[in-house]
Amino acid sequence: MTLFNYTLSIIKQRNMVKELAKKDFKARYLGSTLGSFWGFFQPILLILIYWFVFQVGFRNNPVENAPFILWLLAGIVPWFFFSESLASATTSIEQNSFLVKKVAFNTFLLPVVKIASALIVHIVFIALSLIIYYFYGRPIDLYQFQIFYYSFILFLFLTGLSWVVSALNVFLKDVGQVVNIILQFGFWLTPIFWSFNQVPTKFHWIFKLNPMYYIVEGYRDSLINKIWFWHHYNLTIYFWLITGFLLVVGASLFKKLSPHFSDVL
């Protein structure tokens, strides 16, 4: 029932979540000359650096029949969304302690606001990626619309996970550090810079336990391989089960701990 009530509240207050997400995005760069532009410029610059080093410097060959930059974009764009959302959502309760102490405010919205804020940049990156793919001779087709499916389920996955880590982080400050370490290891354990075909077959199942494997490969299936998500029905079922579990546990844990937030903050 907790998850159901949370879901209804998010739907009813979607406009407030939208406005808070916009304010959160602008507040990150408040005081800087270029303002919100930095939110887009920094990831773009990082992608250009990676492209120059690996494509121009090391002259990487095409990966999975795609130019390296296209293959890299399909993997790194969803990872940027995931890492930025989880890192910011983990500390969302402490950052908004003034709202937590307001009786009428639903604190479970705070991690969702952080994810929605990161989604703004993610949508721009999807659009930019599609433009780059088009100039590389890959026009928009039906397969590419799967990106919105993968973005949606990643949003749900992040929501459940962020409820867990943000609630625990209020009482255990080490949670934030653990999340940062996991993100660093996860970046290299997810096939973003390296092809999954390089992994011996007997170890495939280990890497597939990583939920982000499904998302990253899903983006590549949509943009490069032209494969529908239901063709990987086993991974799809696995990801939805993990997501459903996190949503239920996250909502229950958040509801149990949230009454004590103000005491700690």
Task: Write structural notes for this entry.
- The protein has 265 residues and is an all-alpha fold.
- It is built from 13 helices and no strands.
- Its main location: membrane.
What's a concise summary of this model?
With 265 residues, this protein is mainly alpha-helical. The protein is built from 13 helices and no strands.
Give the arrangement of secondary structure elements:
Elements: H1 2-12, H2 14-28, H3 37-57, H4 68-90, H5 92-95, H6 97-100, H7 109-135, H8 146-171, H9 174-189, H10 204-208, H11 211-225, H12 233-257, H13 261-264
Helix pairs in contact: 2-7, 3-4, 4-7, 4-8, 4-9, 4-11, 7-8, 8-9, 8-11, 8-12
For the terminal residues, how far apart are their CA atoms? 27 Å
> Share of helix among residues?
over 70%
Q: Quickly count the domains.
A: 1
How large a portion of the residues is in β-strands, by DSSP E?
A: under 5%
From the structure provided, what is the oligomeric state, counting identical versus distinct chains? single chain
**In terms of structural class, how would the helical and strand content be classed?**
mainly alpha
- SSE pattern, N- to C-terminal: HHHHHHHHHHHHH
Number of strands: 0
Average pLDDT, all residues:
86
- Spatial extent as radius of gyration: 19 Å
Low-pLDDT windows of residues: none
Shape, please?
A: globular
Helix count?
Answer: 13
Protein name: Transport permease protein
Subcellular location: Cell membrane
GO molecular function: ABC-type transporter activity
InterPro entries: ABC2_TM, ABC2_TM_bact-type
